[in-house]
UniProtKB/TrEMBL annotation:
Pfam families: Guanylate_kin (PF00625). Residues 138-165 form a coiled coil. GO terms for cellular component: cytosol. Residues 6-189 form the Guanylate kinase-like domain. One of its GO terms (molecular function) is GMP kinase activity. Belongs to the guanylate kinase family. InterPro entries: GK/Ca_channel_bsu, Guanylate_kin-like_dom, P-loop_NTPase. Keywords: Coiled coil, Kinase, Transferase. This is Guanylate kinase.
Amino acid sequence: MEKQHGKLFIVSGPSGVGKTTVVTQFLDQHRHLFDIDRVVTFTTKQPRSTEVHGVDYHFVAQHDFDAKAQEGFFLEKSGEYGASYGTPIHIMYELPRGSSKILVIDRVGAAQIMQKHPDVVLVWIEVSSLSVLADRLSKRSTESVEQVKHRLQLAEKEIQAEKNAPMYHHYIENDKLDNAITKLFDIVASYCDNKTTLNM
Ligand SMILES: Nc1ncnc2c1ncn2[C@@H]1O[C@H](COP(=O)(O)OP(=O)(O)OP(=O)(O)O)[C@@H](O)[C@H]1O
């Protein structure tokens, strides 16, 4: 059977909603079922103590990031969170080979990619209230109080933008982590061949 074209799943949602957690745990549990992996994006931010270079991000100096941007290395880039972030364009060349990708980026970056590649699948993660985000971000303890405040302001802006002009194809409530992972599984399974059933 001919391999189908891979899909690019873009996962967004306000800071602290659990994008990284849902995507990481989905991949840990179900990666073996699909030809799918997470895109490692580039950033100039300082790594958190738990983040590993090449796994969570490619951490680069600002002049390297700017040189890459100049060369057209990025599919999209943004600087909303006090550092530069960029998605490497080469991920688009891997999709025709049948590999699907999950990319965690903000709504502005997702809109930039959507304009150029309308066949991407946009997944928005949300929670019932802003206070849940505040609680998760303060418990995560990876940002200062000031940074958390700034993230919450951006979160409010992003949530409002999505409410005013809904852009995403799928919405996942992440109040209960297991339910959110199952919902992501259902979404991916509706677009991607399941390796185990293909081999039956
Ligand atoms: N369903 C959930 N219930 C309770 N806590 C959760 C849930 N999902 C994630 N968390 C916790 O919330 C915190 C934020 O999650 P995570 O870092 O995945 O968010 P994020 O959306 O990727 O944030 P950012 O955009 O700031 O990187 C983490 O400490 C994580 O363990």
